[in-house]
């Protein structure tokens, strides 16, 4: 998937226009949000550092000759008979070095994201989308017809969250086409076009179930929100 650093002013206009056009045919209200990431995943370096530390400990236990060779190399080949206390201290130093090195390496954001399990990223994106929906769209329309389209670019994941009136009539799998069209554009590095495509697909579904009434006001902002 092509990397998207930010959304240009032109893409903001494209999304805003798509929302305004879609809402001409429905009482539904579409909120669009693009975030650079949904979480910092600060626990990931710790998990990998602990795993590296235990792996090093296992190597010392299973292959003591390897550790003794490492000590010999570190001391320039001088032979020394270590006491149990000295040996344990050296093992602890090795584990601390392993922990620190791996933690520092995985703290680099691109690697941290790459090494975070997919399931965790999906859960964090979903949680962020739900939280944003609660503050931006949930129960903020008189017909409970708000829907949030959320894109988290670092994780390359998106979510669609709908208010209760929509959820009662529209199964979550109906949004599959909108998600697929968005991903197609994202793979080409066009986040704004992807969001606009999703807006058009969501608008069609809303127009089918919640057609435009004569006295329905525009209750939520049409503009793209970039976090």
Automatic annotation (TrEMBL):
<feature type="transmembrane region" description="Helical">
    <location>
        <begin position="87"/>
        <end position="108"/>
    </location>
</feature>
<keyword id="KW-1133">Transmembrane helix</keyword>
<feature type="transmembrane region" description="Helical">
    <location>
        <begin position="46"/>
        <end position="67"/>
    </location>
</feature>
<dbReference type="Pfam" id="PF04536">
    <property type="entry name" value="TPM_phosphatase"/>
</dbReference>
<protein>
    <recommendedName>
        <fullName>TPM domain-containing protein</fullName>
    </recommendedName>
</protein>
<dbReference type="InterPro" id="IPR007621">
    <property type="entry name" value="TPM_dom"/>
</dbReference>
<keyword id="KW-0472">Membrane</keyword>
<keyword id="KW-0812">Transmembrane</keyword>
<feature type="domain" description="TPM">
    <location>
        <begin position="126"/>
        <end position="204"/>
    </location>
</feature>
